[in-house]
Amino acid sequence: MLRELSNAIGVSGDEGNVRAIVLEAIREHVDEVTVDSIGNVLAFKKGTGRQRLRVMLDAHMDEVGLMVVGYTNEGLLRMRTVGGIDARLLPGTLLKVGPDQMPGVIGVKPIHLADEAERNKVVQIKQLAIDIGAKDKEEAEKLAPLGTYAAFDTTFREMGSAVSGKAFDDRAGCAALIALLRGERFPSDIHAAFTVQEEVGLRGARVAAYALEPDCAFALEGTIADDIPKDKDVSPTTELGKGPALTVMDRSFIADRRLLKLLTETADELDIPYQFKQPGMGGTDAGAIHLAREGIPSITIAVPCRYIHSQLGLLNLDDFHHTIQLTRESLSRLTRRILRRN
Q1: Residues tagged active-site
Q2: Domain chopping of the chain, boundaries
Q3: What is the pLDDT of residue 107?
Q4: pLDDT at 126 over 90
Q5: CATH, range 2-63+166-339
Q6: What is the pLDDT confidence band of residue 120, given thresholds at 50, 70 and 90?
Q7: How much is the pTM?
Q8: Which of 59, 154, 193, 233 could form a disulfide with 208 if both were Cys (CB 3.0 to 4.6 A apart)?
Q9: Rg of the chain over CA atoms, in angstroms?
Q10: Contact predicate 169/313, CB 8 Å
């Protein structure tokens, strides 16, 4: 499932391919499934009745990418980023452009023609262009009209205990959520939301949370792992192989302490490895969900991924499976009493 989701194209605002995969994967395992007016997939899986709770499980379908915003006389495509992408990573990147997935490559001035000052400067997005082999501006406009999307051309691969691919933020969360929905029923009613446009402002989650009106919410994510060599001895945000990452605080929300306690106590009881994400970095759909209506207790549980928001990410499969396990076991222990405010 993770392979199929990672290989699928779904830049923010153009999640249709991913949505089709999700619908096919869950349709026979839920009691109801709909697509709302902005493209979120909303699925309902009735609980056993042991707990009368409405629990929202969230994962976003979209990925970062590029959009065509202009042309050069030579037939190159000017572009802008959709979501947060570091322009330093882009030169030489292979792309799939438009609905027909035309091959493209991002070009920049060759190093042979750059002076010393240019070589030592960080490349700006305005210095880059997409080459689709068009002979002139007229052909480029015909092949890739303004607003055409472009996505990274990356293929999922197995690498021992790890896998590499694109869009693990948040296809890892989508794959985990699908696995949960395809399993046994939980004590509580599950309202799953596969959301759109997270990378451009948590937009789908805001709509979904308002519509579902849950008692609490779990956002399933792929998050930053920077356990790679650094100039200074600083703690990594998260590390591969040390289990799912639990958010205490990021730029979008502060985790509900009752749900955080539930997750950590469950993990400790069952010897499931976990780690805390370094506070203050990033943001997730939980940032929009927790502010919906009168407020929704929310938590984020994430699979650590190296090199997210780039052409290729890498995650540890044990972390992925432990994320599913910890979420499943925590949901089985969730009660209304836990959510009571002391």
Answers
A1: 198
A2: 2-63+166-339, 65-152
A3: 84
A4: no
A5: 3.40.630.10
A6: low
A7: 0.93
A8: 193
A9: 21
A10: yes
